[in-house]
Design a protein that fits this description.
This protein is α/β, with parallel strands linked by helices. It contains five helices and seven strands, in the order βββαββαβααβα. It has a single domain (4-40, 64-149), classed as eRF1 domain 2 (Nucleotidyltransferase, domain 5), CATH 3.30.420.
């Protein structure tokens, strides 16, 4: 029987579930937290922006290209992608379903390696991190129990 993993995530938390077939439900595999993504921007920045000095121009503050919160989201997406890449390489699942809000979904997709990305069968751009395993199974029932994987 093939194993399907379901990653349900947002920028500050993620849950991994496994499903091994019809009527088997979802089994929690791992719960991952990234509390830094919940921090206020002021708490993530240690100092004021740096100063640029040019002759005759005066001083200007340089702003980072990405916000501290976006940077933390990128770090968490990288952590999740590493988790999936490693699990795929060690044969822990045969396919994976990703569930995340649109912006965070993009970050995860950027970080997955090629072989793992090929095993993504479905993507749902929703934040279901507060859903119970039973609620999630109901919402994803149509793609969890595909005939090809029974």
């Amino acid at each position: 029987m093939a194993t399907t993993w379901i990653l349900v995530a947002n920028a500050s938390q993620a849950k991994l579930y496994a499903n091994t077939g019809p009527k088997k439900g979802l089994v929690a595999v791992k719960d991952l937290q990234h509390p830094e993504s919940r921090e206020k921007t002021a708490d993530l920045v240690s100092d004021r922006p740096g100063q640029l000095h040019s002759p005759g121009v005066g001083q200007r503050a340089s702003q980072p290209k990405t916000s501290p919160k976006e940077n933390e989201a990128r770090h968490f997406a990288q952590e999740l992608a590493r988790e999936l890449n490693h699990a795929r390489a060690s044969g822990q699942f045969d396919r994976v379903i990703l569930v995340a809000p649109p912006a965070f979904m993009g970050l995860i997709n950027e970080k997955l390696d090629g072989p793992t990305a090929q095993l993504v069968s479905d993507r749902f751009e929703k934040d279901y991190t507060r859903s119970t395993a039973r609620e999630l199974a109901g919402r994803l029932e149509s793609c969890i129990y595909l005939p090809d994987y029974q």
